[in-house]
Amino acid sequence: MKQITFFLDFISPYAYLAFEQLPQALQGLSYSVEYRPVLFAGILKHHGQLGPAEIAPKRDWTYRQVLWHAHRAGIELQLPAAHPFNPLALLRLAVACGQGGAANRYACETIFRHVWRGGADAADPQRAAALAAVLKPPRDPGGDEVKAQLKANTERAIALGVFGVPSFAVDDKLFWGFDALPMLRAWLEGDAWFAGGAWEAAQQVGAGVVRGR
């Protein structure tokens, strides 16, 4: 049985889509999933990148595209009242519901749907309190242990080469994005393409121009 580590942040609509689609995308395969909440903003900062919602035309396109993907996949999705928002409280809540920095699927599902269904404000304090009451985390989401585990998850993701969410780590491979689910399935099925050298060849392409920052 293959173990997949799913790095996610509830701020990402693509992570929500991947979370909802994963069981169907991998149906019939033998695997287990470990859900690891990470701070996407911390990953962006490490790589010196802006988030999709920080670039105005890309922001508009992102929302259109995720609505289209949801429509095509039959996944319920309504954009939240405000986006981006600060996801720290939600990330810590998910970690507090699990053990060792991992979150359980029920907590992740409940939090994702809190954000991406209904069109409400994901960061509203009253809604957040009601969400915590439903999940009943066994640990304090604001405690030092939970904060440290979320930070460790983010650092682990960066060390593995994660640059965005959703990302899936399995064996020595890393797959990024909602649209990578078919590729992830192919790896789990033992597709011969992965032994043909194309994966390694992608790392050998030289940079013709390096743009200054």
Account of the 3D structure:
The protein is built from nine helices and four strands. It has 213 residues and is α+β, with helices and mostly antiparallel strands. It has a single domain (2-204), classed as Glutaredoxin. The chain has a four-stranded mixed beta sheet. A hairpin with a 2-residue loop joins strand 3 and strand 4 (173-176). The longest helix is centred in the N-terminal third of the chain and has 18 residues, at 56-73. The N and C termini lie far apart (44 Å).
Secondary-structure map:
Layout: E1 2-8, H1 13-25, E2 31-37, H2 40-47, H3 56-73, H4 88-96, H5 105-116, H6 125-135, H7 144-160, E3 167-170, E4 173-176, H8 181-189, H9 198-201
Parallel strand pairs: 1-2
Antiparallel strand pairs: 1-3, 3-4
Overall domain count: 1
What form results from the Cα inertia axes?
globular
Strand fraction band? 5-15%
CATH architecture: 3-Layer(aba) Sandwich
Largest beta-sheet characterization: 4 strands, mixed
CATH superfamily: Glutaredoxin
Mean pLDDT: 97
Contiguous low-pLDDT stretches (5 residues minimum) are: none
Task: Please compute the radius of gyration using only Cα atoms.
Answer: 18 Å
What are the secondary-structure elements, in order, as H or E? EHEHHHHHHEEHH
Q: What structural category characterises the helix and strand content?
A: alpha+beta
Number of strands: 4
In CATH, what is the class?
Alpha Beta
Q: How are the strands of the largest sheet arranged?
A: 2-1-3-4
